[in-house]
Amino acid sequence: MTPPILRTKAALRDAVLGWKRAGETIGVVPTMGALHAGHLSLVEAAKADCDRVIVTIFVNPKQFNNASDLENYPRTEEADAEKLAPFGVDAIYAPGPGEIYPEGFATAVTVTGLTDGLCGSHRPGHFDGVTTVCAKLFLQTLADRAYFGEKDYQQLQVVTRMARDLDLLTEVIGCPTVREPDGLALSSRNVLLPPETRAAAPALNRVMRQLAERLAEGESLGPVRFQAEAALREAGFSEVEYIELRSADGLETLEHPTRPARLLAAAWLGGVRLIDNIAVG
Ligand code: AMP
């Protein structure tokens, strides 16, 4: 059975207060819809841990720094509800924009430091949009736990810090990236890749894995990064926004993986921005 779709925060509040009164734990999986197996892995993790699971579907205008990206973002609510049917999700919360940003809305949640660099420098305002909507969704759903993908690694770190800094009662849980068999990280934007570019897309993950291996063997990022960028251009990528090595915890810039480290990259293929990240060492 497809889960009930709740459209207002009042309807959501009714449901979650009932569950809370019964002593049940609530897990939330925040998404922008166009669900794929990556999202569904978060739903499975939430189901395994929590008595009740809410999947939110909200294409959050505040986290788009580009109007055409927002306009072109895939919206597939009916298919999303069908995909969730086998998982025993208790509710889909798909609010209209006014439920999240009522007229006169004037508040923003900002995390500093962790949002410098990486996607933060290339997408101005993006993380403020993410943290503002996540704070609201955590409070509206009264969730005990919220499930996020490592696919958006900087986002996971930023949202974790936000919840901690604001003493929110929602614990942020990170889950591994789900990939196609060829290594391409699943993403709602993959459907926007022109068919002739799809074969080139796994080069991002392949080049990153080769780079990570060389870093783990002791080479410095500087020179090998140039080679990786050239390999991506050779494969058909039009622009490499960044390839960086950061500490896994605080996202500090590293030249060598001297502590638990993450290689993160963003690059453009066929007019679509792809991101990926992997552990190093
Ligand atoms: P989005 O709908 O793109 O905002 O993503 C919603 C959630 O799904 C975020 O926590 C993402 O990190 C997560 N997610 C997206 N793609 C994947 C993937 N390939 N594997 C695991 N989680 C993912």
From TrEMBL:
InterPro entries attached to this UniProt entry: Cyt_trans-like, Pantoate_ligase, Pantoate_ligase_C, Rossmann-like_a/b/a_fold
Catalytic residues (UniProt): 39
Subcellular location: Cytoplasm
GO molecular function terms noted in the UniProt entry: ATP binding; pantoate-beta-alanine ligase activity
Pathway: Cofactor biosynthesis; (R)-pantothenate biosynthesis; (R)-pantothenate from (R)-pantoate and beta-alanine: step 1/1
GO-annotated cellular components: cytosol
Xref: PANTHER family: CYTIDYLATE KINASE/PANTOATE-BETA-ALANINE LIGASE (PTHR21299), PANTOATE--BETA-ALANINE LIGASE (PTHR21299:SF1)
Similarity remark: Belongs to the pantothenate synthetase family.
Name listed for the protein in its UniProt record: Pantothenate synthetase
